[in-house]
Design a protein that fits this description.
This protein has 6 helices and 2 strands, in the order αααααββα. The protein is mainly α. It has a single domain, classed as Up-down Bundle (Four Helix Bundle (Hemerythrin (Met), subunit A)). A two-stranded antiparallel ribbon has the order 1-2. A hairpin with a 2-residue loop joins β1 and β2. α1 runs antiparallel to α5 and α3 runs parallel beside α5. The longest helix has about 30 residues. The mean pLDDT is about 85. It holds the Pfam family DinB_2. This is DinB family protein. InterPro entries: DinB-like (IPR024775), DinB/YfiT-like (IPR034660).
Length: about 190
């Protein structure tokens, strides 16, 4: 896949995430956003806060990596290292295997303000779209984005962009499932008839 094809695909995916946020998540009441099907599961807000925590690290790291002037053709085929493939495989939405998150990235048991979490999530998505536009003139095969949990390891710029977007899709889908469980629970809950 060429750099321009990858970037176009990622822009579409981030735009789709913003659409889900606007149509499915933001209109919901706080009770729906805070609902947890089980004590161990994450609510919609926890899913988005988890993504906010990752964005606080990766958006600045991507901005810094993209500030470096390209040293080669920017429309080359995007290559992937072993680390990049492994990182993507772990977070891609189709991989239903549960992954253990780092303690500082786990929002479970956090007091979350719905408006603040949603606003920050939207801002991070808009920043990511801006970064994807900046990446059109970057060498996506250049290593330059540190891995959050072990910063000595570096992903290539293209790998990092793919990882970030796939990770977001995975947890937005998890948030959508939490909303579906909330709706299903409300529909099956016994009602008091007077």
């Amino acid at each position: 896949m060429t750099s321009s094809e990858l970037l176009q695909q990622l822009c579409t995916q981030v735009s789709d995430l913003l659409q889900v946020l606007s149509t499915e998540i933001e209109p919901r009441a706080a009770a729906a956003l805070q609902f947890k099907a089980t004590p161990a599961s994450w609510s919609v807000l926890e899913c988005l806060e988890h993504l906010n925590r990752y964005s606080r690290f990766y958006n600045p790291a991507l901005r810094k990596a993209l500030a470096v002037k390209p040293s080669s053709a920017t429309h080359a085929e995007v290559g992937f290292s072993w680390l990049g493939r492994k990182s993507y495989e772990m977070v891609r939405p189709e991989n239903r295997k549960l992954q253990k998150t780092l303690k500082h990235m786990n929002p479970s048991q956090s007091a979350l303000n719905p408006k603040a979490v949603l606003t920050e999530f939207r801002q991070h998505q808009e920043t990511l779209l801006e970064l994807l536009r900046q990446a059109e003139n970057a060498d996506l095969n250049r290593k330059g984005v540190p891995v959050e949990f072990f910063r000595l390891l570096k992903l290539r710029v293209g790998e990092a962009l793919l990882f970030v977007v796939a990770h977001q899709e995975r947890h937005v889908q998890q948030a959508q499932r939490a909303l579906q469980q909330y709706v299903a629970q409300r529909e099956t809950a016994p009602r008091l008839v007077i």
